[in-house]
Amino acid sequence: MHRLGAILFILVSLISFIQSKLEFITEVCRHGARAPHGDTFGTVFENGPGMLTPSGFRQHYLIGDELRNRYITGMDKSQNLLSPRFNPEEVYVRSTQSLRTVQSAYAQLLGMFPLGTAEDLRSDQIDVSIPPLNMHDLEEIITELGTDAVQDGMQPVTVKNYGQSVDSFIAYGGCPYIVNDYSRRVDDPEVWQPHDDHYRPLIFNQIAEAFEKDPDDLSFMKIYKYSDLLFAENFEGKLDRYNFTNEEWEIVRSMQVTLLIEKLSPLSSKILSLRYIFPIMELIKSSMGQDYNKELVKNFRNPKFLLLSSHDYQLSHILKLLNPENIEVTHIEYASVLIFELHRRDTRACKDSSEDACFYVKIIYNDVPLKLPGCSSIDCSFNEFRGYIESFDMTYNQMIEICFSEAPLKIPNYEEISQLLS
Ligand SMILES: *[C@@H]1O[C@H](CO)[C@@H](O)[C@H](O)[C@H]1NC(C)=O
């Protein structure tokens, strides 16, 4: 009897799993493994400060390959949201201004739309599709290309980005309040002293030894450049400064999210996160066929797949706001992926309906489906999801109002700020 019950349970779960149709996805990711931005204390990273390493490219290429499997060519047709060939109506990619996030997006898109998937050239176009330049090797290269538009049928995909100073969604721009808040906190001992007190006895001596420093010269606020270099070295197999025990290494790792979160007050943190959540919410409504705020999403088009190539910084704040019950995030690895999926329940009544009850949202972080406090299960009904976002008690207009409630304290140095995005 028990076994029958178990089989029935599995069957029912399978059916309920299958019975949905995917309507919209947003992916927020961290760039892949990269070189540190600043001093590497003698370790060589060939690719230049802050840039992706080959391992970082590989990570994102593999994400793209897996997403192709899940959302384009998978066995379960109801989850095949996107066309096998890149369609700009379906896919919108936006990156922060950093070179490494743009690089990550490109690598990922090469996995999603691999070589050979681009549209071929019509053969009668071969002799016409030539730039107004004297080509030194025209015959040779044309023969080699055949009907591939570019070599191996590679599909170039647009990756949009706006300057940090103007990007009012996925960077600091357009919100003097956050920038001021950051400037006020960055040197404020009240913010950092408690963390210093906590971590100093646990790990400062070891880090100081690794870098041949005096522990008294280290402070929690300034420790990121050391721990960040350690992560990069560790990932690339170049970490031989100090043999951390597993326990010590966990402590080094766990400082990351605290450091990122403390750069902003709870209010600014909420704003930063809502700048991601608001457009996602409006695009969800649009995908459902409901009214949505067109002004708010006008720079995201109306895609089925929105990719926001970002940093550990944004992910840590968004995850803090969402506050999932089933995971604790202390460290955001390279190439971490947060996915928002909108599903339409596959019932006859829901087939063409835009009713709230026909939809649910599933949020998945590094393959762990998140259970949000405002949702009764992992499949969060749209009503619950909207209610949960509303429980943060801020509208888009209020957010804008707070952002501009202060004039910029000083002309923000976005170069400096973007370094801090890590
Ligand atoms: C770490 O351990 C390895 C293997 O025991 C050793 O070869 C290496 O010298 C150690 N490194 C440091 C910095 O102590």
UniProtKB/TrEMBL annotation:
Could you list this entry's UniProt keywords, alphabetically sorted. Disulfide bond, Glycoprotein, Hydrolase, Signal
| Name assigned to this protein | Acid phosphatase
Q: Which residues form the signal peptide?
A: 1-20
Keyword Glycoprotein listed? The answer is: yes
Its catalytic activity?
A: a phosphate monoester + H2O = an alcohol + phosphate
> Does this UniProt record's set of keywords contain Cell membrane?
no
What family name appears in the similarity comment? Belongs to the histidine acid phosphatase family.
- Xref: Pfam families: His_Phos_2
GO molecular-function terms, A-Z: acid phosphatase activity
InterPro entries named in the record:
Acid_Pase_AS, His_Pase_clade-2, His_PPase_superfam, Histidine_acid_phosphatase
Gene3D superfamilies (alphabetical): Phosphoglycerate mutase-like
Lineage here is: Eukaryota, Sar, Alveolata, Ciliophora, Intramacronucleata
Enumerate the PANTHER family for this protein: ACID PHOSPHATASE-RELATED, PROSTATIC ACID PHOSPHATASE
